[in-house]
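Q: Okay, next protein. This is DUF721 domain-containing protein from Corynebacterium mastitidis. I've checked the sequence twice, so it should be correct. Can you predict the 3D structure?
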Amino acid sequence: MSDPINQAFEAMRAAALKRNGSVPSLNLQGGARRRAASAPSGLGDALRDAGDAGARERVRVPGLAGEELDARQRSGSARRRRGIPTGPDGRRIPRRRDVDTLGSIVNREIRQRGWAREIAGGWVTGHWQDLVGEKIAAHTRVEMLKGSTLFISCDSTAWATNLRMMQREILRTIAAKVGPDGITELKIFGPKAPSWRHGALHVAGRGPRDTYG
């Protein structure tokens, strides 16, 4: 009858080979050597032959600590040759991700201090010609930003009408440049009409009329 320990090792070897893995060599087991020496000659020879065959095979079992350590050491050596910093275990040193960039710090300060709309208004004023084109910019001017409303004056009623027809497109362009919550409305005015008022007393008329555009 076969030795139960030998049967156990054979079962382990068969299972490992099915998984394309390996088991420790039988010749490294001190107990197996002692049993082989004390066993009958036929059984002892079989155990020694199995141990020698296991030593020659050197099969790898996925998940063994020794195999993982060897792989880490080989990977660490390759990284050191490439100049990649590694730790004592050969793994790549992770990058620090808790350091804020200058842009994120500035954006956070802008949000906390409520400067987003003021900065948006300043950007629109400085880039008005880029937003509406050179021809329209020559006849219009950004007056001020109040809340989320941008006030624009035109040098004639015709240009004010044209700009009102374009305001949705202008707002979309502004939102794409400075964000959707900076400027949400345009107030467009025509030219200031001359005043015929003289003295402190006067009668209210029909209001300003654009007859010079």
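A: Here is a summary of the prediction. Residues 157-178 form the longest helix (22 residues). The chain is about 55% helix and 10% strand.
Q: Noted. On to the next one.
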